[in-house]
Amino acid sequence: QVQLVESGGGLVQPGGSLRLSCAVSGFTLEYYAIGWFRQAPGKGREGVSFISSADGSTQYADSVKGRFTISRDNAKNAVYLQMDSLKPEDPAVYYCAYAPLAPNAIMFIWRYDYWGQGTQVTVSS
């Protein structure tokens, strides 16, 4: 059973930074993708950033390009989301998710079968 645990959320001022971590365990497939999604109150869940285990390729939503960076540490089975220049529109619960048999950094939410519990990010002065 694949398990994902997010951490690193919190309160930050506009323009500040946070680093989210996603610890992944229980996976056996060689090829998969890890995605970060977020959901603000009253809104749907949207994809933020994605990384492939196969080739290390990454994808970003237009709203976070140039501000967020996704990375992985294979030795620790962890994926990180470095969030810089945080804006008032970034607050949400951030989730990491696992997509099995992914050949690249897929962005389709329906391909992600396993989800973490989420971590809250708040941006406020």
Q: State the low-pLDDT regions, or none.
A: none
Shape type: globular
How many individual helices? Answer: 0
Spell the H/E element sequence.
EEEEEEEEEEE
Write down how many β-strands occur, each being a DSSP E stretch of 2 or more residues. Answer: 11
Give the overall pLDDT as a whole number. 94
Strand content: over 45%
Keyword list:
50% strand; 125 residues; 0% helix; four-stranded antiparallel beta sheet; seven-stranded mixed beta sheet; mainly beta; globular
Entry summary:
Helices cover 0% and strands 50% of the residues. The chain contains no helices and eleven strands. The radius of gyration is 14 Å and the shape is globular.
Characterization of the model:
The chain has 125 residues and is mainly β. The chain contains no helices and 11 strands. The chain has strands at residues 3-7, 10-12, 18-25, 32-39, 46-52, 58-60, 68-73, 78-83, 92-100, 114-115, 119-123. The strands form 2 sheets. Strands 2, 4, 5, 6, 9, 10 and 11 form a 7-stranded mixed beta sheet that branches. The termini are far apart. The model has no long low-confidence stretch (mean pLDDT 94).
Structural topology:
Layout: E1 3-7, E2 10-12, E3 18-25, E4 32-39, E5 46-52, E6 58-60, E7 68-73, E8 78-83, E9 92-100, E10 114-115, E11 119-123
Parallel strand pairs: 2-11
Antiparallel strand pairs: 1-3, 3-8, 4-5, 4-9, 5-6, 7-8, 9-10, 9-11
